[in-house]
């Protein structure tokens, strides 16, 4: 019985170590990619916009996604309704996926799926 109990304790400790490492990584590079993918999963479309349009959207009250500030170079990522994006002349559509275009964009506007 003692041997079996020691085995269970050892396995439990190993699981706790792995879990604690995963939680620490959420605040490092691995966590950023997870959070970026999570944000992209909620987007139906993506657009690259000018710095002026992004600043105007932020001034209108659209919230910057924190994951954009964790990337280097930092990005402005905002969720904006499709109707508002349609009125922007600088909006250039790009695919919603981790791609070169998306990673090079400094100001990114995402439209959410319809509720």
Question: Helices, strands, pairings?
Answer:
Layout lengths: L1 H24 L3 H13 L1 E6 L2 H9 L6 H5 L5 E4 L2 H5 L5 E3 L5 H5 L2 E6 L3
Parallel strand pairs: 2-4
Antiparallel strand pairs: 1-3, 1-4
Description:
By secondary structure, the chain is of the alpha+beta class. The protein has one domain (2-112). It has 6 helices and 4 strands; from the N terminus they run H-H-E-H-H-E-H-E-H-E. It has helices spanning 2-25, 29-41, 51-59, 66-70, 82-86, 100-104, and strands at residues 43-48, 76-79, 92-94, 107-112. The chain has a 4-stranded mixed sheet with strand order 2-4-1-3, sandwiched between helices.
Residue share in helices? 40-55%
What is the count of structural domains? 1
Task: Tell me the β content.
Answer: 15-25%
Order of helices and strands: HHEHHEHEHE
Q: How far is the N terminus from the C terminus?
A: 55 Å
Oligomer: single chain
- Strand order across the largest sheet: 2-4-1-3
Q: What is the C-alpha radius of gyration, as a whole number of Å? A: 20 Å
What gross morphology would you assign? elongated
The total beta strand count reads: 4
How many helices in DSSP terms? 6
Mean pLDDT: 90
SS-based structural class? alpha+beta
Largest sheet: 4 strands, mixed
Low-confidence stretches: none
Short key terms for the protein model shown above:
53% helix; 4-stranded mixed β-sheet; 115 residues; elongated
Give a brief description.
The protein has helices spanning 2-25, 29-41, 51-59, 66-70, 82-86, 100-104, and strands at 43-48, 76-79, 92-94, 107-112. It is of the alpha+beta class. It has one domain (2-112).
């Amino acid at each position: 019985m003692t041997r079996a109990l020691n085995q269970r304790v050892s396995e439990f400790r190993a699981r706790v170590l792995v879990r604690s490492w995963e939680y620490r990584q959420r605040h490092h590079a691995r966590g950023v990619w997870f959070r970026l993918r999570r944000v992209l999963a909620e987007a139906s479309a993506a657009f690259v916009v000018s710095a002026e349009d992004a600043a105007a959207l932020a001034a209108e009250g659209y919230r910057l996604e924190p994951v954009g500030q964790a990337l280097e170079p930092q990005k402005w990522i905002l969720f904006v309704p499709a109707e508002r994006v349609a009125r922007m002349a600088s909006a250039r559509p790009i695919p919603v996926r981790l791609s070169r275009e998306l990673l090079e964009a400094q100001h990114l506007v995402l439209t959410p799926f319809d509720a």
